[in-house]
Amino acid sequence: MSATAQAYFTGVPKPAKLLVSLFFIFLCLIAFFGTVKVSQATINGFVTGSYLGLGAMGLTLIMGVMKLVNLAYGDFLVAGAYFTLMFTALGTPLPLSVLLAILGTALLSILAEKLVWRPLRNAGASTLQCFLSAIGSSFLIRFTIQFFGGSESRSFDIDVLSTMVLGPFRVGTQQALGFVMALAALSMLAIGLWISGAMKTMRAVSDNRLLAEVCGIGVGHTIDLTSLLSGLLAGAAGIVYATAVGSFNPNFGLTLLLSLFAAATLGGIGNIYGAMLGGLVIGLSQEWSALLLGAKWKPLVALVFLVLMLLAVPRGIFARAPRRP
C-alpha cells in the first residue's frame, strides 16, 4: 500500500471502517453460503442485536456515569422477564404486564442505587469492594427469582411457533414483535433525552463529577436518573429477549452479560447510541458465526470481540474524542 493510500485509509473514521468491514464479510459469506441463508442469518442478527443493544445502552450508562462495573446487570434483564410473568399470572393483560414489569425493574434498579451503590460511594469503597458487591447483588437477585419463579424454563403466553413469510425468508412472529418493541423503546428514550436535555448533565457528570457539582449540576439527581433509565432499559431488554427467544430461565442474564459488555465496549463507554450500534454488530457477528461454527459458539464470538476491542480500540469505535485541556 502506497503512503498516500495508507494516509487516506488512516483518516477514514472508525465507524466507516467497521461498516465497510461488515459489508465485506457479508459479501464473503454470500459467496460461500448463498444469498438466502446469509440474509436469513442477517435478519436473525438484527433481532439478536435489538435486545443486546437495549441492554448495552443501560449498562454503558452505569459504567459511564456511575463508574461502576455492574456484574448484576444481566439479572435485571431476568427480573424484567419474570415481573412480566408475575403480572400475567395475576390476570393482568400482557401489554399492561409488560409496562408494569419495565417500571418494576426500574424500581429495583433505584433500590439497588439507594441501598447498595450510594452507601458504598459515600463510604469511599474501592473498585474491588464495588466489584464484589456487584457479584453478591447478582446472586441475591438471581436466587430470589429462582426461589419464587422456579428454575425450569418458562415462556410468555404467546404463540411461539407462528412465523411470517417474507419471500424466501421466515421471521418468527414473536421475534418481529420483540424487534418492534426494541425500536419503540429506543425511540421513546431518544425523544425523552432530547426533550429533557438530560444527556448533557449525564455527560458532564461522566466527564468530571466534582466539576459538574461545582457548576451546580445535581450529581445525586443525575445518578438517580441514570439508575432509572438503566432499569427501564434492562426491563425492556429482558422482555424483548424472552419474547424473541420464546423460553427462558433465571440464568439467561448471566449468559447475556458477556455480550452486553462487548457491545457497550464496542460502542464506547457512556455512549448510549454507540452501545445500540455495538449491540447490532455483536448480534450480526453471532448469527453470522453460527453459519461457520454452529450456534453453540455464539458466546465465544462476544468474548473474542471484547478482547479484540480492548486490544485494538480500548475506547470503543464510537467513543468521543478526549477533550483537550
Structural summary, described in words:
This protein is mainly alpha-helical and 325 residues long. The protein has 13 helices and two strands; from the N terminus they run ααααααββααααααα. A hairpin with a 2-residue loop joins strand 1 (163-166) and strand 2 (169-172).
Which class of secondary structure composition applies to the elements?
A: mainly alpha
Number of strands: 2
What proportion strand? under 5%
What is the averaged pLDDT score? Answer: 83
Distance between the termini: 36 Å
The general outline is: globular
By DSSP (H or I, 4+ residues per run), the number of helices equals: 13
Which H/E pattern describes the elements? HHHHHHEEHHHHHHH
Strands ordered across the widest β-sheet: 1-2
